[in-house]
Amino acid sequence: MDRRRITAIGVLVAAAGAAAAVTLPSFAGEGAAPRGGASAASDGVAPEVVDALSRDLSLSREQAAKRLTTERRAAATVARLRTELGEDYGGSWLSADGSQLMVAVADPARADRVRAAGAVPKPVDRGVRELDAVKSRLDAAGGQASPDVSGWYVDVATNSVVVLAWPGAEAAGRRFAEASGVPAGSVRVRAAAEAPRPLFDVRGGDAFFINNAGRCSVGFSVVGGFVTAGHCGQPGDRTTGANRIAQGTFTASSFPGDDWAVVEVNGEWTPQGVVNDFNGGTVPVNGSTEAAVGASVCRSGSTTGTRCGVIQTKNATVNYPEGTVTGLTRTNVCAEPGDSGGAWLSGDQAQGVTSGGSGDCTQGGVTFFQPVNEILQRNNLTLVTATGRSAPPSEPPAGGGATAPPATAAPGAPPAGEQAACTGQVSRVGQIAAGRAQNQPDGRWFRAAAGSQEACLEAPEGALVAVRLQRFTGTSFETVASADTSGGLARLTADTPAGVYRYRVVGLDGAGAYTLAFAAR
To answer: Known CDD domains for this protein (predicted)?
Structure first.
């Protein structure tokens, strides 16, 4: 999608300018809003949209419907004026109440055309194409922006491009603008305490990729990540989402014998207590009560979507070419490659993750799933539900299965068998191995005022792990303090100036789960 074109033709909601406003036409003949409902002008708009607009903008449903009518007419007016004004079109925006359309014009002689269309002309120095060109220069120089700069955008209401910088670091925004070579006066630097990051939902059934190669499906969201099939990946394997954005790391896996795995996601992904229904929506997960033999069950996977059937037997053993897996549940639901790991629901209750099967979704078949309660219990995980978080099962699931392998620390847990000895204002856990490194918190950085910073890192016995406090210097992160676990807990303290920092956890020898706690005093 061309963001520049959106800027050029979009109708932006902003405060009205100082010029006298002209109210948009009332659109006679479109009908008044009926009592208790949306107007005919909002036909085609879902009632949920009208309700949400009413709720979030503090409007009645009639006012919300009227606003939608006005906005639709304004969009048509903008499309005509943009074509007619050409290079002189400077952008457009609606007043805060949505009743007035403002149109910027770079040639005062074109103002009458704007008025004739029912909009308010606003004289400006630059057309929107020139503003877009300025922003393109900033985009090209984006790699030079420091963490103190959170973004930039075209602001047609002020006829400029705005660069957002952290309060007190506006100079960084000005340096970035100057380095990009944009014309003087075309850019404004505005202070904003913003640290945006992409946000993606983890949903049952969605596709994910392993080491940018094989594809599987998400089972269920758990605190810190999700569960899936063990044959999909091994500890340390990296995952990307269906959008090919870095997603997480396999932290535990068992196959054959069992067929389950745990993936810990990074801070850009949010586990949600829902499953993709592959019909444009989601269905809620409200618990993990085990369904009986004969109960209906539905499976969601990234290859064949949602398919349903019944539970035939439990505690089934399957002799795969890779080895025997026990304790599975057999169903008459079909599945195909890529559906592996996907979610199984009976009503709104989580049942398991897809293991394997026979047949396909053209001729039909048999499919087995690994019970989810066993995965939660083995790994001390907490299922994320649509209404909140449900506690992990306190007892092993019925039906038996293979003997559990040694416990592996799961997302959110300290190293197995140890109490967390490190405490602080912020705590993070992860998996590390020799030769690997992770940035914390969540692969990002944080801001700290001048003062003392303290950190504590604990790692499993036999592993040597280092923690380094690093400060951003304007071009790179440089280490200002470090410690390692050669003597047990790694502790560091540093007196630091205000700035942007991160912790870097480095595996030197061995592997396992670590806990990092840190605070600024």
So the answer is: alphaLP-like
Query: For residue 397, is pLDDT > 70?
Result: no
**Residue environment code for 307-316, b if the CB has 16+ CB neighbours within 10 A, otherwise e:** bebebbebeb
Note the pLDDT tens digit of each residue in 70-123. Answer: 888 888 899 999 999 999 999 999 888 888 999 999 999 999 999 999 999 999
Active site residue 186: no
Nearest in space to 520 (alpha carbons), one of 484, 461, 469: 469
Q: Which of 340, 355, 390, 427 is catalytic?
A: 340
Catalytic residue, candidates 88, 206, 258, 259: 259
Q: Which CATH number fits domain 202-379: 3.30.40.230, 3.40.50.720, 3.30.70.240, 2.40.10.10?
A: 2.40.10.10
Asked whether residue 210 carries a pLDDT value surpassing 90, the answer given is yes
Q: Do domains 128-191 and 202-379 have the same CATH topology?
A: no
Asked if 259 is an active-site residue, the reply is yes
Domain 67-123: assigned CATH number = 3.30.300.50
Q: In the annotation, is 340 catalytic?
A: yes
Q: Which of the following is catalytic: 95, 186, 231, 346? A: 231
The architecture of the domain spanning 128-191 is: 2-Layer Sandwich (3.30)
- Would you state the CATH architecture of domain 426-520? Sandwich (2.60)
Mean pLDDT (the chain, rounded): 80
Coil, helix or strand at residue 68: helix
Q: pLDDT-based confidence at 31, cuts 50/70/90? A: very low
